[in-house]
Here is the input.
Amino acid sequence: MKNYCNVSPNRNDLIEDFIADYKLFALFNAPANIIFVDNFRKNIAKFKDIFGFFQMPNNIFFACKSNKSLALMNESSKQGCGIEVSSYYELKEALKYTNRIIASGPAKDSQYLTLALENNVIISIDDIEELKEIIKLDVSANVLLRISDLIRIISRFGINISQIDECLEMIKNSKVKLLGFTFHINNYNLDHRVNAIEELLEIINKKQLNIKYIDIGGGFPVNYCKKEAYKNFLANNNENMYFRKKKFKDFYPYYNEIADEEALKYILNKIHHKLDGIEIVIEPGRSLLNDCGISIYNIKYVKHLDNGDNLIITNGNINCLSEQWFNTDYLIEPKLYKRNMDQILNEPFYASVAGNLCLEQDMITWRKIKFDYMPERNDYLIYYNTAGYQMDSNESNFHRIPLVKKLVASKINDKYELIGDEEYDSK
Here is the structure.
């Protein structure tokens, strides 16, 4: 196919070993999401090492909205990390494992605020009206003020800079303790984060505030593939590469010169000498989940259309891989896992991947993927690196189909053990 570009996932030995062990596939029926807690621990350790390099406390809070796995919450607390939550329901689950929690999110209702206050968790204040509501309760509260328009980036979230003085005056005569400030920038630009920290430091110094934390959120980019693969794809991207000539122009940055824990190192290199004892807090989701999950779907049949296009129909769907909801395609190509190996095809077979919903837009991958073997019924398609904001962000019981089961894979004495996510606590 003209202009075809391969975008293969970066190799991870733990995951490749798991996939190679066919016996494990007999333990479950696809669709399934597999979580790798061993890689999660390694990722946490890498971020801790960066904080250690700068002799700073490792204030890591796992942003649990990035994956709904209870095992990951459990492991976060075991590794000494906090958990960042964004709803009453996330907070209720997180409290089973730790009270080192930051309660974020807009439109916090009284149920959410009450549970947070009762458990003395840090509350990230999203709006001045939310602060007024907490002060009205006349109880002790530890808060961060989320600031909206740092470095002139306007957001629907947070308190306007022009409202900071009003907030400080309200706090002065209340039981609320201001621990610091927070911001979340909706991009992956590291210099924007450096500039935002510097702007906050100017505000803190100008107002002579005694604070403990600056919470910079997450947004540390992840490298899903090799540089040349992503660069080649962007250079050749065109409508002929997709089913029904679908047009996509915006993509997650699948390769970055600085990524994961090195992104934190880049930021701290720029600002650590300016902090004067203020601690940096981070809330990574995606970067803590790099290589921590795969999604496996069963192939039901292959559909050959009269226009020459091919579709692999699976028992997954658009709700199982959330990238489609952002009007983009998940570029990392799935691996075809065959039950019975055929001869390599004389000519490659190109196909897009569709799901099991009664919707024309139910496509898991719009791009035409190259296969060297013919996909057949009951073969598997394995999507890599789906733990971060992919496998369960938009899951739904559409058609009353049960949610995809989540299993946790641990390697013990060179053997893999699979256990249900909800059973992991009793492991």
Notes: The CA atoms of residues 327 and 398 lie 20 Å apart.
